[in-house]
Each structure stands twice: as structure tokens, then as C-alpha cells.
UniProtKB/TrEMBL annotation:
SUPFAM superfamilies: beta-lactamase/transpeptidase-like. Gene3D superfamilies: DD-peptidase/beta-lactamase superfamily. InterPro entries: Beta-lactam-related, Beta-lactam/transpept-like, Diverse_Enzym_Activities. GO terms for molecular function: hydrolase activity. It comes from Flavobacterium album. This is Serine hydrolase. It comes from the Bacteria. Pfam families: Beta-lactamase. Keywords: Hydrolase. The keyword Repressor does not apply. Residues 80-347 form the Beta-lactamase-related domain.
Amino acid sequence: MKKYISRSLNLLCLFSVAMLFASCTIGRFVYYNFANITDHKIFPSRTAKSDSIKFHYAVSKKPKAPKTLTVGNKETTFDDYLKNSNTVAFIIIKNDSIQYEKYFSGYNEESVVASFSMAKSVTSILIGCALDDGLIKSIEEPMVNYIPELNHDGLEKVTIKDLLDMKSGIRFNESYVNPFGDAATYYYGRNLRSAIKRRKLAHAPGGEFEYSSGDTQLLGLVLERALKGKTITNYLEEKLWKPLGMEYDATWSLDKKKDGLEKTFCCINARARDFAKLGRLYLNKGNWNGKQIVSSQWVKESTTPTPGNQEYTNQWWLNGDGSYSAKGILGQYIYVNPAKNLIIVRLGKNHGNTDWDGLFASLAAKY
């Protein structure tokens, strides 16, 4: 009897393991456990090459950066505060000059860090470029003009603008701890195009803001179709990575190696200084040293609150004081404050129990 029970348990375990790893999505979720800033190492990717001409920020001769912070009733050095909050890179740029630049936990200026959802804002920049290039006619177009396989069950009413503002009404489980959720499927899965075909409406589009990585991935497919054979990474290289004089190449993670689709909701892998240049582009209203990279109108629409979009518009977070940010789940930030001519980049292993929005606002007030 004991032998029978033991054999049954072994068979049950083998069956469970087989079923678990039959799904690469669930298997990868379990194996990797949770997203990490080194995830660029586990996914296939395409490379956006930098140009031979590099843009380098000047380093301030009289840097103005905080030396200490008071947290609760305890004063600590700014460096220690960042280090203890699991920060790996922190840059403050004022008037095109670096006021502060420090790296922690073995990271340096050449270290690659995954963007996570900061990629959403970059996807928005590329949508703006595609509008300028006439590849997309209007953000008021239905998304099904580019994704005709979704022309059913009310999805035909969803516009590109609905996707940009995350008001599509399309059902998407954003949970990052559920291996069966949509977020896990999109992040760890190997067929985004197939996953996209399964999207359904939860309610009519154009309603309330609901954060959805699914909306940004749909934007990615719209962009890929509009590019007609050119990859999204190629377009990133052409429109941003080379014109902005990035110091290093970047990669964009894909769902699969052969004919893969860029994970436009999450996964650009680059260095802190180059992320800062994306902030500089918007700080200068889409102009880069005299060349208009993306229209100033697009930048304005993407960074200005409206009655219907006070918090989020065109894949950018609005802070209510004229500043705005690209944000990633593990505390990746590109913060831009036009009134102070200020850019802050923070990259980290996690949020580190810190209110970064509050800290950025506090730092901005001192400039």
C-alpha cells in the first residue's frame, strides 16, 4: 500500500511538473520568479545602434546637488539614501549640465538597465514620429485600420487615442504576481501576436483611465503594421537613437527570436545617460540641437493635462505642476521639469520604499 501511494505521488509530481513546463509562459514565470533589471539577458532582442557622433552632457563646474536628506528625524547623506533605497543610477541635469551622477551596487555609466514601463513613453514618441512621417494618418483612427483581425465585437470602436490614454476598455489583467494573468503572458510569453488576438472589450472605449500594458502592446502592433516591413527597433534607431547622439547601443526585447515583436509595453534596455537624452528631447519640445525630431505639438499634447486626462496622456505621467515622467515598475524614472530646465533619471532594483515623485518635486524646488 505504501509503495502504491509513493508511486502515485511520484506520478502526480511528474504530471504536475510536465503540465507546468508545457506552458513556457508559466514555466518562465516560476523559474525567473519576478521581473528584474537584468531581464535583458533572458529575452531575445534587436539592437538599435548609436551613431558615431555622440552627445555628451557637460559636467557642472559648480554642481548644485543635495549633500544630505532628512528622513523622519534622521539626517543622512544623499549618497547613502540612494544606496539604501536600492538605486543603481541617479542623475540630475540642470541647464544641460550634470549636477549629480552616481552609481551604486556595482553599476556604472556603462551598465545596461531594463526600462520596464518607461518604454511606454518611448513607444509614444515613435507614434508621434510615425504621425509626422505620414505612416499613421491620425490618432483618431480606429486601431483596426492597422489590426484588422480585431475588427469584431466592439473592438472596431477603439481608437489609437484610446490606446494612448489607456481608455480602450479592453480587458487586461495587469497583475504581476499571477502566472495566469495577461501581464505574465505578455512579459514571458513567446507569441504576442497570438495573445493580442484574444483581447476582448470589458466596456465601451473612451471612459475612465485604466492602466493597461495591453494597450501599449496594441500600440506596438499598430506601429509595426504602419512601418510596413521595418522593425520597431529599426525605427527607434532611425528616429531617436542615432539623431540624439546616444552614447551606447540599446536593445529592445522581443517575444521570440524569429520574427519577434518588440515588447513595447516594457522592454528597452539602455544606460542612464541615454535615458536622460529622451527627457532632454521633450524638455526642448521635440527639438534636438536645431533639428525637429518629433513635432512640438505632439510633445505638448503628451505632457499637458486636459479635463479628461489630468494624470496620464499619450503614455506619459503628468505630475500636476507642469512636470511629467516616464515610469517603470521597479522605480525607473525619467523626470522632466520644464520650469526648472531640469531632468532627473533614477534607475533601481526596486522602489526602495521611497516616494520618488515627492523626492523629485522636493529636489526641483531647490533648483
